[in-house]
Amino acid sequence: MHGGPVLDLWHMSTRPAPSRITPLIEPRSLSYRSADWQQAMRDAITDVDTLFAELELPPEHKPAARRAAALFDLRVPRSYVARMRRGDIADPLLRQILPLDAEHADPPGFVDDAVGDQASAAGDGLLHKYYGRALLVTTGACAVHCRYCFRRHFDYSAQHAGGSHAEAALRRIAADPSIREVLLSGGDPLSLSNARLESLGDRLDAIEHVERLRLHTRTPAVMPERVDEAFLAWLARRRARVVVVVHVNHANELSDDVTAALRAMAASGATLLNQAVLLAGVNDSADALADLSLALFDAGVMPYYLHLLDRVRGTSHFEVSESRATTLMQEVAARLPGYLVPKLAREGAGDDAKSVLGVPARARHAVRG
Ligand SMILES: *Cc1c(COP(=O)(O)O)cnc(C)c1O
Ligand code: SF4
What we know:
The chain has 15 helices and 9 strands. It is of the alpha/beta class. The protein has a domain at 117-367: Aldolase class I (TIM Barrel). Strands 1-2-3-4-5-6-7-8-9 form a 9-stranded mixed beta sheet. Helix 14 packs across helix 15. The radius of gyration is 22 Å and the shape is globular. Residues 142, 144-146, 149, 151, 186-188, 218 line the site of iron/sulfur cluster. Residues 127, 129-130, 133, 135, 183, 354 line the site of pyridoxal-5'-phosphate (PLP).
């Protein structure tokens, strides 16, 4: 009765740790100081001439870039530019920040407030559209200006939760026990100083019913210097569980320093998810989408949503049709494990959740023999 093999859980759990553990955090990501990212913010490229010179782009595209930059300012951190191919006007990272004449197009259906944000804002920067979750527009600033941005027309000055607005937003959160999760968004919450994040995090941690704190940020992908020691310490200190939704659209964005920054955030206790936007000319191929999921997984990030473009005026050239999106996702699903296939989603004004589009599997090809 005692002779059979037993599963010795005690010894399995007390086995000595292997003598060499691969460090999860590469030292470089931990060596950034606040001064580095504030400098990187100031060094961002904001004029067409500098961008074209840095990347040796064909000058015939300059006048159009200047015209469209008048609609929405050009802004791109240098470390993001460093990941673009020189001389390639079609580079998938460049496409996301390069102003184009197509932005002047004004087809019907593309409007200023495509997701109903202004309609649902009470004026204090808190958007409470979905049950249990409320979104705080913490700032209007971003490290980068993405041309497809759904907030390129958003009236930040009236609606962000900065200064005096913050108190009203925090009071509303404290008064509503149904709010279990607060999303810090913007703009980009990582444009805030560490001191401002500190006070916001402490105030939210003091509200007992806020169980989860979620950051929606594109900054680690475009300016990994922002993930400095103080921010990592901030992540580690939170009472609430922290979810960071990073916005990575293309595998080329995941350079070694970005990957190291993401891993350091995970090691500080944050759950990392990715939300991408399906963009024509950037990631609208099964190869690009599959590569993105695989590269995210390598960096410790799980794919969450792939959003269809919000129909915002000036962004119609980025649109991928719903039927093409579904076909692309079928191809991705046929290649990758289910957990690396993001949910294809669309946001509608007035809905009670984001709509997830069904992606029916294709019939398997008959195998010969
Ligand atoms: C997208 C969004 C959320 C979060 O939705 P999830 O489906 O939970 O990711 C919450 N509030 C607002 C206003 C949003 O736009
Ligand atoms: S980082 Fe996000 S909010 Fe900022 S410009 Fe890009 S898409 Fe818009």
